[in-house]
Automatic annotation (TrEMBL):
Residues 11-331 form the FAD/NAD(P)-binding domain. It catalyses: N(6)-[(R)-dihydrolipoyl]-L-lysyl-[protein] + NAD(+) = N(6)-[(R)-lipoyl]-L-lysyl-[protein] + NADH + H(+). Keywords: Disulfide bond, FAD, Flavoprotein, NAD, Oxidoreductase, Redox-active center. This is Dihydrolipoyl dehydrogenase. Residues 350-457 form the Pyridine nucleotide-disulphide oxidoreductase dimerisation domain. InterPro entries: Class-I_Pyr_Nuc-Dis_Oxidored (IPR050151), FAD/NAD-bd_sf (IPR036188), FAD/NAD-binding_dom (IPR023753), FAD/NAD-linked_Rdtase_dimer_sf (IPR016156), Lipoamide_DH (IPR006258), Pyr_nuc-diS_OxRdtase (IPR001100), Pyr_nucl-diS_OxRdtase_dimer (IPR004099), Pyr_OxRdtase_I_AS (IPR012999). Binds 1 FAD per subunit. SUPFAM superfamilies: FAD/NAD(P)-binding domain, FAD/NAD-linked reductases, dimerisation (C-terminal) domain. Belongs to the class-I pyridine nucleotide-disulfide oxidoreductase family. NCBIfam families: lipoamide_DH. One of its GO terms (molecular function) is dihydrolipoyl dehydrogenase (NADH) activity. Its EC number is 1.8.1.4. It comes from Aliibacillus thermotolerans.
Amino acid sequence: MVVGEVRTEVDVAVIGGGPGGYAAAIRLGQLGKSVVLIEKENVGGVCLNKGCIPSKALIHTASKFEELSRVEDMGIQLQEKATMDLGKWQERKKRIISQLTSGIQHLCNKNGVTIVEGKAYFLSDDRIGVETSGDFEVYQFENAIIATGSEPAPVPFATIDHEYILNSTSALELTEVPDSLLIVGGGYIGMELGMALAKLGSDVTVVEVAERILPATSKHLTKEVVKKAKRLGMTIQTSTYVDSMEVENEQVVVTLREGDTTKKQTFAKAIVTIGRTPRTKELGLEQIGVTMDERGFIPIDETCRTNIPHLFAIGDITAGPALAHKATKQGIVAAEVIGGLPSAVDSPFIPYAIFTDPEIAGVGMTVEEAKEEGYEVKTAHFPFQANGMALATDAQDGFVEVIVDKETHLLLGCHIVGKNASQLIGEGVLGLELGVRAEDIALTVHPHPTLTEGWTEVTQAILGKAIHILN
């Protein structure tokens, strides 16, 4: 303890105000705990302010813009060619973020959570210091939840200047659509941003070191995305490395290497999306003995406890997929454990959603994973081309897939490729959580005409009695 140190005592200190951190703080407030939520920028974290929400706003705008090119087939005549004003879009983005952050602040206030804006550093395993704009505050706590999230991974071949060479954060600050654009990294962030900007008129090239784009996703689920990317005029170069990237004469000059062949190309802008890294440095975690692996991730148990029992870790700084909904679930669990409730992250069913065109979403096992687990599997697919609502709303690309145990028809995995896949996968998540069989979904009446009928058809196909496709 520092002589003369002024400390504020709280039950719980939450470090990081992203989806996991603010959810934990609110739940703790509901449970009657005194809570300080420390966030160095804005509540909502990267997801709300610089990632998930603004990127989906851009994707939505780009999709609407692209749809205008096809409305003549629907009988709509446009008098003039549509144009895009990204500056105006930035205003809309800021309004959305402001509304959501204000809502979070209101909920925190109503639940007795104190929000402190500043940079946090552990002084001991029960004290944390916070550098605010004009002061240094110290909080003594009984428990703490570390929810500091992640940031773009370091780039070995370039300097991110946020003007010509961008990362996923500065890409969402663009006020003009670049004439030509290089996306480095064909994962979900790169493909989401690349497809959106291609729809807005940019000449987009994607380079990926793996043999295909979206390498972490089953190949058969990505085929429709590749087809649409080509229709948008995008160039996709796989098994390709970036050797160097420099800004020359207000252009980005890149040296690309494929095998033994290298070539230089020039682009107006480049966006580097090669992954993210956990924000666990400069928190003082090493000094207080928190265990971390070589990459900076913090091991936790099913209650989100670290090796120090009264310190918890959640979200992107823990192993597993870096997903906001995973962080939220962990944050609530950590809060409830601190509050004395019997809570745990005990479900393996964490869904994923990729907001490409078409979208890809899934939960549970793939065919390969199910076989590795020893299951004898049976699968079925229902194409949206056989769905009336899909055809009526120009959403015919893609399919619904289910994977079941061949003998019992127990649901093992669900995957969707198509428009609104992210909205449709919820039924599959619930089915897996409840341990349903194909018969349970097949016997459930889904409204017509909707895309949800795909669930009926695909599970009926498992049973050999689909109506709208051949069995």
